[in-house]
TrEMBL record, chain C:
It comes from Aporhodopirellula rubra. GO terms for biological process: phosphate ion transmembrane transport. InterPro entries: AAA+_ATPase, ABC_transporter-like_ATP-bd, ABC_transporter-like_CS, P-loop_NTPase, PstB-like. SMART domains: AAA (SM00382). Keywords: ATP-binding, Nucleotide-binding, Phosphate transport, Transport. This is Phosphate transport system ATP-binding protein.
TrEMBL record, chain D:
Coiled coil: none annotated. Keywords: Signal. This is Phosphate transport system substrate-binding protein. Residues 27-264 form the PBP domain. It comes from Aporhodopirellula rubra. Signal peptide: none annotated. It comes from the Bacteria.
Length: 281, 297, 252, 286
């Protein structure tokens, strides 16, 4: 049948285009960062004295550390609150309230990062500043980042919990297990894959967030000594410097983009492989 | 009963305590999340709502945004979204159809397409900005333009749109296909006459969801669609999106604060409307029956 | 042991069971039969307050346990369910090891001593005749067991916390005939130790197992009890025409 | 069946169309002055350029001028890449930027700002250097309250940063900041939100903010008050030119626009943006 064939061909072609975009991105990042990599090699991005691209110093390590610290810190905040929210809507909230709670969490997911950034800068930073300094530091960035990725954890955990067989919960209740015991022993372990997936996705979101962090983290390129010290993430660095970067510097910024991309791809591929083997569990 | 009544009493007290503590913790977690959300929304509303009126929505941007409205910004945002959707929707519907053509098990093709889309979904928005700047703006010579921005956003929303479209198509009961196939219909006919019409509300919900994501984006647009705050005359003109306008007013323009908050109000209201639209469409599609499982233990 | 008076169950305001009054004698097996949708399962769920976790369900009427109102005897549902166990139509072991399936509820009820836990596991598995089949693989996932084994594990899990009453909601209906027979034998052997209320669609099974029988019927979408008494008496000499035609397979 | 092929090819058509419309975004104007100009660069110059561009468009309705921000460096880089016709830079061109031409349109001063609750009256050159190079960490040491100093610094490439470093003769790697910001308003918001903070921003924006009640204060430098009058008179030491940057042979349209920017017709606009107009003699500065 001709039309069936052409449908297959067309849709497959479209699928190939969609899939190729990621390759195109990697290709362009590589192309743009080749000059820097060829000239500087990989090691200088880790061994140089500091980050002063105009003075020929290109150490990315403090920014990598700051990126990892803010993202993982965001997960530390988002995971308990998000899972708590998911448990709340499924087991604790009255039905009407549960529906509203879900809707509000979805709304939280939709708030643009600049709005988070603005709120963090004008409202949260002065509060954090009572601990000293300007209030623009890794802690502020982490808190706001945590709020931003919280809906991802909450919504995916919610889906995972709602997908659990009702019989397990009824069975556990019939055995005289309390609500907290059912949640703790049956629900959370049962939904751990879905919840874990949500956390990983939230982690990639946190790793990818730019504007709010740029507005809140203080942007000092220095190995952070505590959560209250300022820091600059790789994303913020690109956003701060790409605008004025000249050729060589621009290329270095593409290297940091490439690195960011590598970290995220490794995480995503790891998860997709794990999901591929889900049936064995 | 092995454990006597005395210990049983103690266990019950302990259970009560545990139940109480866990319940308090869960309520506190849920309430604090909502409180922070309300805090943020209230903060924006208090600082900005007074500036929002019909004139604000249609007037020109004047004096770098300190005076006037956001008419051109809304137009640019709309055009960027339009470009984004014109490209992303056919691509993702096509891809979703290709990914769902075999319902029994994943082919090698589908598995790898999906894997690459998973990676695409994780790409940081600033990297999309880098890519869009290098590819659309410079390599293709589109410059800072609505077209560059829209195409960059199209790449960005593609994974979400494909994922939701795929789910929408899969959610169509297999019996429909079997019934249609049993009547001797061709695959194409089944797809366009049976499957897609049924999946349409859910497909539309996916589109609306991607619009929400695209609306909220800032980082990818600064280096692609640029900053120009005026009415664009063609897709090759630069155009400033709502979120970029908020950033610019707040960070670049002395005395731009209240207008920044007013713009944020408009953006949040738009997103609220989009959320409501998604929920409605999903309910029409019968996909959103989760609320029936809500309840107490 | 357990009695109800005018028990009504409704979902979202729609009554599904009205005025159910029964009496289950200690150590006996009470069969609950009737066509689908006549409120038997809702009736069982009301007895151990499982209706609490079914959205929209509400219960009115009186339930007594050992002559005492259950609301005063067991202020907490957790405590109530510890005395009134339940077996479901579809075996529902948790997705964990066999041992953990048994130990989890025990730990929840305050037994933490390893040796003691081991003893209880072994004895309940012996009681349900599963010990010889699974003693070497207690740490494997319970989901790898066959349906019949899973159902017997669920019964073992329920009796491990030593309830006085067991509610069984069609415990054999999702099993193959051989497994169903095993489980039926098991239930039969539990007579005298536990007060058992068993819902079944299998009239022959109800007749074989139960000491007393209660027959539910639907009228205008609302379930109610139309006959009850000693099983043999009901089967042989009912005066109710509907019951008679139901029991002889002409109706329902 | 046909409809499906038609629909699908329509999709493809859309794609191709979108992919093909990659014509260059600017055309240089001919004698009747029409066409399009793209300006990118300094966020300090951009608001002024936008206002001037509006007036220019009113006079020449067929001309369209797009103004984008992103920092002086971006303006220079974009002119080099050909993405923009004119770059905006709020600093003189550096030695390695000799391939471009700068056209001065106004002047601006860079002033130091502190929180308005800070009692400090003035800081000497040495004190400022010491503060920015982490040798002084408390206001007490320069005669203020016992409060830690939060140093607000700018990201590399921002013109204000370069003016500041050049004036005080500091190398950027030796600066130890507590917060690094990109945009002027970010610096202002940070200082206004932190009692112990010190930063430097364009005097024009700082005056505008102070006028609208933002809690910051400009510090005098070398006993000269930091305000636009003193920048205009040339008395204020730390000042900078606001330049339009082009490749060496700008298009006729770009030249006309630059001439317009330097004419007295726009002095009111320059003043309204808190900058200082220049006299036409010094129009072409390098």
């Amino acid at each position: 049948m001709r039309s069936d064939q052409s449908l297959t061909i067309i849709t497959r072609a479209l699928a190939v285009i969609s899939a190729a975009i990621v390759l195109l991105i990697v290709l362009f990042l590589l192309r743009e960062s080749t000059p820097a990599l060829r000239q500087l090699g990989w090691s200088r991005f880790f061994t140089d004295a500091s980050w002063h691209p105009l003075s020929g110093q290109f150490n990315l390590t403090p920014m990598i550390v700051a990126t990892l610290v803010t993202s993982s810190g965001a997960i530390v905040i988002a995971a308990p609150l998000g899972i708590g929210s998911a448990v709340f809507v499924n087991f604790y909230a009255p039905r009407r309230l549960a529906a509203w709670h879900r809707r509000l969490i979805e709304l939280l997911a939709g708030i643009p990062s600049v709005v988070f950034g603005l709120w963090g800068l004008v409202v949260l930073a002065p509060i954090i500043a009572t601990f000293g300094g300007s209030g623009q530091n890794l802690l502020t960035a982490t808190i706001v980042l945590g709020l931003m990725v919280l809906p991802t954890v909450a919504l995916l955990s919610d889906t995972a919990i709602a997908a659990l067989p009702r019989e397990w919960i009824q069975g556990a209740a019939a055995l005289g297990m309390g609500r907290s015991a059912i949640v703790g022993w049956i629900v959370l372990p049962g939904a751990r894959r879905g919840i874990g997936g949500g956390i990983i996705l939230a982690l990639t979101r946190a790793l990818g967030e730019t504007m709010a962090v740029l507005m809140l983290a203080g942007n000092i390129v220095e190995m952070p000594s505590s959560l209250l010290s300022p820091g600059r993430t790789l994303n913020a660095n690109i956003a701060l410097e790409l605008g004025y970067a000249s050729a060589g510097h621009r290329s270095v910024l593409f290297v940091s983009g490439l690195m960011l991309m590598l970290v995220v791809s490794v995480i995503v591929l790891f998860v997709s492989r794990r999901e591929g083997t889900r049936r064995d569990g | 009963m092995d454990s006597g009544p005395a210990t049983s009493r103690a266990i019950e007290v302990r259970h009560h305590w545990r139940e109480f503590c866990v319940a308090v913790a869960v309520w506190v977690a849920a309430t604090s999340v909502i409180c922070v959300l309300i805090w943020i929304l209230a903060d924006i509303a208090i600082r900005g709502l007074a500036e929002v009126n019909f004139g604000f929505l249609i007037e020109d941007v004047q004096d770098a945004g300190r005076v006037g409205g956001i008419g051109p910004i809304i137009l640019s945002t709309g055009l960027i979204l339009l470009v984004c959707l014109v490209v992303a929707v056919p691509l993702s519907f096509g891809t979703a159809i290709a990914l769902t053509e075999r319902l029994d098990k994943e082919s090698w093709f589908a598995r790898n397409v999906r894997r690459s889309l998973d990676v695409l979904a994780g790409v940081p928005s600033i990297v999309f900005g880098l890519f869009g700047n290098a590819f659309f703006a410079i390599a293709l010579g589109l410059g800072y333009s609505i077209l560059s921005g829209g195409l960059t956003l199209a790449c960005m929303v593609l994974p979400i749109l494909i994922r939701t479209s795929e789910q929408a198509i899969r959610a169509v009961p297999a019996e429909y296909r079997y019934a249609a196939a049993a009547l001797g219909m061709k695959r194409t006919t089944i797809l366009f006459r049976v499957v897609l019409p049924v999946a349409m509300p859910a497909l539309a919900a996916g589109v609306v969801l991607s619009i929400g994501r695209a609306l909220a984006e800032t980082a990818a647009l600064i280096f692609t669609s640029g900053y120009v705050a005026r009415t664009p005359e063609s897709l090759l003109d630069s155009g400033r999106s709502l979120s970029v306008h908020i950033y610019d007013l707040a960070m670049n323009v002395p005395g731009g604060g209240s207008k920044a908050y007013a713009t944020a109000c408009v953006l949040v209201v738009l997103l609220l409307a989009i959320n409501a639209a998604t929920a409605l469409l999903l309910r029409l599609a019968g996909l959103h029956n989760r609320s029936t499982t809500g309840g107490s233990l | 042991m357990i009695t109800t008076e005018n028990l009504c169950v409704s979902y979202n305001g729609r009554t599904v069971l009205r005025d159910a009054t029964i009496e289950a004698k200690p150590g006996s097996i009470l069969g609950l039969v009737g066509p689908s949708g006549c409120g038997k399962s809702s009736f069982l769920a009301a007895l151990n307050r499982l209706t609490e976790i079914i959205p929209g369900a509400s219960v009115s009427g009186r339930i007594q346990f050992d002559g005492q109102d259950i609301d005063t005897a067991f202020p907490s549902s957790v405590e109530l369910r510890r005395h009134i166990g339940m077996i479901f139509q579809k075996p529902n072991p948790f997705a964990m090891s066999i041992r953990r399936n048994l130990e989890l509820p025990l730990r929840e009820h305050g037994i933490h001593d390893r040796q003691h836990l081991g003893q209880i596991c072994e004895s309940v598995l012996r009681d349900v005749g599963l010990w010889d089949e699974v003693s070497t693989r207690l740490d494997q996932s319970a989901l790898n067991l066959s349906g019949g084994q899973q159902q017997r594990l669920c019964i073992a899990r329920a009796i491990a916390i030593k309830p006085q009453v067991l509610l069984m909601d069609e415990p054999c209906s999702s099993l193959d005939p051989m497994s169903a027979e095993r489980v039926e034998q098991l239930i039969d052997s539990m007579r005298g130790q536990y007060t058992i209320l068993i819902v079944t669609h299998n009239l022959a099974q109800a007749r074989r197992l139960s000491d007393q029988i209660t027959i539910f019927w639907t009228e205008d979408g609302v379930g109610r009890i139309i006959e009850q008494g000693d099983t043999e008496t009901v089967f042989n000499e009912t005066s109710n025409a509907i019951v008679d035609s139901y029991l002889t397979g002409r109706k329902g | 069946m046909k409809s499906i092929i038609a629909t699908s090819s329509l999709f493809l058509l859309c794609l191709t169309l979108v992919g093909c419309t990659s014509s260059p975004s600017t055309q240089s104007g001919s004698s009747e002055l029409s066409g399009q100009l793209t300006l990118t660069g300094s966020s300090t110059v951009a608001p002024l350029a936008t206002e001037i561009a509006k007036r220019f468009e009113q006079q020449h309705p067929k001309v369209r001028i797009d103004v984008q921000t992103g920092g002086s460096g971006k303006g220079i880089a974009d002119v080099r890449l050909g993405v923009a016709d004119i770059g905006m830079a709020s600093r003189p061109l550096a030695a390695d930027e000799a391939d471009l031409t700068a056209h001065r349109i106004a002047a601006d001063g860079v002033g130091l700002i502190v929180h308005d609750s800070n009692p400090i009256k003035e800081l000497s050159q040495e004190q400022i250097i010491a503060i920015y190079t982490d040798k002084i960490n408390n206001w007490k040491e320069v005669g203020g309250e016992d409060k830690e100093i939060t140093v607000v610094h700018k990201a590399e490439g921002r013109a204000t940063l370069e003016v500041f470093l050049k004036h005080f003769g500091i190398e950027n790697p030796s600066v130890k900041g507590d917060v690094i910001v990109g945009e002027n308003e970010h610096a202002v918001k940070t200082v206004a939100g932190t009692e112990g903070a010190i930063g430097y921003v364009s005097i024009g924006t700082a005056e505008a903010d102070i006028e609208s009640g933002v809690r910051i204060r400009l510090l005098p430098l070398d006993a000269v008050k930091a305000n636009t009058e003193n920048v205009a008179s040339g008395a204020f030491p730390m000042s900078r030119p606001l330049n339009l940057v082009t490749a060496n042979s700008p298009s006729p349209l770009a030249s006309t626009f630059i001439q317009f920017c330097q004419s007295a017709d726009v002095h009111d606009l320059v003043k309204s943006q808190y900058f200082v107009p220049i006299t036409s003699e010094s129009a072409v500065a390098k």
